[in-house]
Amino acid sequence: MSLLPPEATEFIGFVAPHEVSESRAPRGPAIEPDYLRLLAQAHERGGFDRVLVAFYATAPDPLLIAAEIATVTERIGLMIAHRTGFTAPTVAARQFATLDRLTGGRVAIHAISGGDDRDLARDGDHLTKDERYARTREFLDILRLAWTSETPFDYAGAHYRIEAGFSEVKPVKAIPIYFGGASPAALAVAGRHADTYALWGESQAQVRELIGRVRAAAAPHGRSPRFSLSLRPILAETEERAWARAEAILAETRRLRAARGLGPAPAPQNEGSRRLLAAAAQGSRLDERLYTAIAAETGASGNSTALVGTPEQVAEALLDYHDLGVRTFLIRGFDPLEDAIQYGRDLLPAFKDRLARRGGTAEAA
């Protein structure tokens, strides 16, 4: 799976090696192979194009988890979160190219610079945010050189100096780079390197504004990135039941946080979380279906806004974002396995049917 045509629509799910959710109490070991297999296969059978494997400082290694996912599936793409700066870029380039070859071209990278100083400190990284994004720019420069250069190359930057760098193994095709971050430093990197720019589940007005800024940052490089939106759909057979389910998830999230002794969430350090909280400050229900209360409860520490309704209603809400230029939808549930099955059975077909009726491209190439 190489770079997608501009108008192709892509759905990305989320696969963790054990059950994890704001409204599910942690249980079991960090890696549960049977659960990992079931969740990965549920996404493949449901028609997802890729699955995200996340990164945080205490998590199992996402590259190895992605390799395991590849062994229990046949076609689904792997969007592997990689925190730039901890592995030498030449080494990382060979790792990803190797996995891409072994899986027949299923690899993509979600390059993350890190938005929380506390999490980065767990791995010994104490650079400032702007320094991290500058390092990411150099990292991605070198990654692309290693994947494409037919002869040894040199690179001299503030963070990396490479002499006669080269990789014998090349990707099957161009490995897509997904990238997020809304600060000025992040947008500068996005304009240079993002094949797909990733937004969290913001209001339509916020999405429109940020897409405009990313396009402006990419224009001087002659680039036109795709756009991804991350949401947590909450579905039910009626709208009333869907909203009741959303409130029940919020109540359970609050209960679990209290049981763990968690007080009010600390102020976030990353711009993406701040933007979600700014949306939540406008109300718990925006644009008819965007539910922000769980983001407000958790300090928007991750992808935590939802679209609420029947599958058909949420499909229409996704089409509203499609009209703004979004072509990739990263969706995961608060009940991870059950929701993945429901998305594949009900939501993806509803969206693709409506898009096809409008003459859009409903399938990834």
From TrEMBL:
Signal peptide feature range: none
GO terms assigned for molecular function: monooxygenase activity
One Pfam family hit: Bac_luciferase
Keywords from the named record: Flavoprotein, FMN, Monooxygenase, Oxidoreductase
Transmembrane segments: none
Occurrences of domain Luciferase-like (ranges): 15-327
Record flagged with keyword Metal-binding: no
Protein name (record): Alkanesulfonate monooxygenase
Native source species: Methylorubrum aminovorans
